[in-house]
Design goal:
Distance between the termini: 15 Å
Oligomer: single chain
Radius of gyration: 22 Å
Largest sheet: 9 strands, antiparallel
């Protein structure tokens, strides 16, 4: 009887420690802008901006007439954001910090908030500008792109078809408002998943190029059909690159199963 009581209390303590009220899963964030706050970023061009907290140096490959800059936005809940004016975008413009990751067969997750405008005072959206995130491996090969066509708010992606296509049936952005986006890259099966405001909008898209590692996730702007006649404006915030950890529930379940098997074998 005494042994049974001790085992019961041990099990209770084990469950209390391993299954905290906060949940079973966690994620490691190799890079988190913390909302581009002014404690880390200075108002002005994002080109070659030093992130004072992490030491990451934001790099750029921007077409003439396109700019990204840290700026205050009239929405205090979003704090400081990144704005881009995509004018005569050419082959596209990119801004990124290097975040090299070797995920094996795991997942790399990119999250960001985005406010795509349909125009602004004295500023008209022309053509079909794309605003979103493009992920690359450490050799510079594109893995995937996900974002919004500012002309109509349709979800647009680049996948194994190597072209950027619209999927209005999956999601149409209510322009001029914030949405939270997530691009999950699964290196186990070379596919990616897209979430908007926590709801999955696209799954099973194939990587543009077969990749075994992750190099960077770029804030990206380009013209979908006529790059030289494209104008648009969008804001980015809360940019995070993370690696989800395995579910602690699965680890504990395996451990409990092994313990039960041992008890049955020695009973």
């Amino acid at each position: 009887m005494q042994q049974r009581v001790i085992s019961r209390w041990a099990l209770r303590l084990f469950i209390a420690i391993v299954f905290p009220a906060s949940g079973f899963c966690a994620a490691v964030a190799p890079y988190n802008t913390n909302g581009f706050e002014l404690t880390r970023f200075h108002v002005g061009l994002l080109n070659n901006t030093q992130d004072v907290a992490s030491g990451a140096n934001w790099q750029t490959s921007a077409a003439t007439g396109t700019a990204a800059q840290v700026t205050t936005f009239n929405d205090l809940s979003q704090g400081v954001a990144v704005s881009m004016n995509d004018v005569a975008a050419g082959d596209g413009s990119y801004w990124w910090p290097q975040v090299p990751i070797s995920p094996g067969s795991g997942v790399v997750s990119i999250k960001w908030a985005m406010f795509v405008t349909s125009g602004a005072p004295g500023f008209v959206t022309e053509g079909d500008p794309f605003f979103g995130i493009s992920a690359f491996d450490q050799l510079g090969n594109r893995i995937a792109s996900a974002g919004i066509n500012a002309a109509n708010g349709a979800l647009a992606i680049s996948d194994s078809s190597s072209s950027t296509s619209e999927f209005a049936n999956l999601f149409t952005d209510a322009l001029n408002t914030w949405h939270n986006y997530e691009l999950d890259l699964n290196f186990g099966d070379s596919t990616f998943h897209i979430f908007v405001d926590g709801t999955e909008k696209g799954t099973g898209f194939g990587f543009v190029a077969a990749s075994t590692d992750f190099g960077d996730a770029d804030i990206n702007a380009f013209g979908l059909t006529n790059p030289l006649q494209t104008t648009g404006l969008a804001y980015f915030d809360n940019y995070v690159v993370s690696v989800p950890e395995p579910s602690m529930f699965m680890i504990v379940a395996s451990g409990l199963a092994a313990a039960l098997r041992h008890r049955r074998a020695t009973k």
